[in-house]
Amino acid sequence: MAAFCLTGIAVLMFSACGGNKQDSRLMTFEKEDKRTVVLYSPMEKMKPDAENVARSASEKTVIMAEERLGVTMEYITYTAEDYQDKTYDDVALDRARNDMDDLYLLNPDTIRTLAMEGKLMDLSGLDSAKNLRDVVKTANVVDGKLVAIPQEVVVYGLFINKDMFDQYGLELPDTPEEFLACCRVFKENGIETPVGANRWWLETFVLAQAYADLYNGGNTEAEIAALNSGEKKYSDYMRPGFAFLQEMIDQGYIDAKKAYVSEAIEGEGADFLAQKTPIVMAYWGAANTETAYGNPDFNMLVIGFPSNRGQMPVMPITGFAVGSNAKHAEDAMAMLDIMVSDEALQVYTETNKVISPSKNIEVDCIPALKPLNDRINENVFVLGSNASMKVEQWGNTCLIVRMLLNGASVDACMAEFDRIQEESLRQ
Questions:
Q1: β partners of residue 314
Q2: Under 8 Å between Cβ of 395 and 388
Q3: From CA 40, how far away is CA 81, in angstroms rounded?
Q4: Taking the model in full, what pTM does it have?
Q5: Is the dihedral of CA 298, 260, 398, 414 positive or negative?
Q6: pLDDT tens for residues 217-233?
Q7: Cα(41)–Cα(87) distance, rounded to whole angstroms?
Q8: Which of 82, 102, 184, 271 has the fewest CB atoms within 10 Å, i.e. is most exposed?
């Protein structure tokens, strides 16, 4: 599925985008020790001399586990060079299916796929699992098994150059109509591309509009049950968001051709930081690190995506998983239990200033993230991944958005959702 859908720690720790035959971009970092646990995770394409806060935060939890258990972590990493390469997820699926590693850092779509294939262990017996927020369980419990645990709850939002909004007298948009109106003003004032986009994250606009009512209207379980039974169609939920993206493409508010081949942040980050583009989409942690948008030369705010219920955060849940046939399964489970314990997550959360998966841990966010955080504290958000839905959301929506970017009609995209739903009903 989509490599750069891997969020938060994944993108910040390392960067996203093989098999039994070693790929030239597959890298191994080994430490000499008798007891080892092998972790497959992405490697960020970092700026020279830039401090990687998330990498440092995660490394602290690894060191904590290594010292307590006398076990050494070995890292296997992969980075796609461009959009034509295998994605990070392609390689993750291949490695997990062939039992090549112990621990895996996975995207939500890959978590679901491997869990359905029986390739991931049940983590619900870990002491740390007792402290998890309900939203993590909702996303990562498959067939009654907790198959992945993250070190942070990743939240996506719109990164706004507030100075440019103020320059043209624009209020921050709440609805799709208000968002398009802002884009029109920017375009009329010579901003060539008001929204910077990449090939992975435009689905956030779609998911916010599709499921604002489903997750915030008080009838979530019944609506999901209707989708799973075929009584309701995913395409009916998705159509407004795809029509919205098509209008942005038609009006030139996003560059579809550039987005189709651009990696996340690498494709649009430079223009956003240079104040050529006033709006980009990214994950919470990107506001905290200089490898992304942590040090802009302007007033930056992070808000939710436009929806009929106002600014809407989108939350896909990634996670660490243990292979069901892991060679070092016992040590891998023990190491993960320490890495996602409250003690370790307190260190991680304070270092990285993110939302913890533990219900016992809170941290103050930076001022730029306050608008997004306020919505979450109001319990207003949309899940980008939900294990109770028969049709996987994050990866499928991402890939169908890419069909739109490549010239497919909205109707063709909706037909693809219908096809996937029909296939799920036959299983």
A1: 156, 382
A2: no
A3: 18
A4: 0.80
A5: positive
A6: 999 999 999 999 999 99
A7: 12
A8: 82
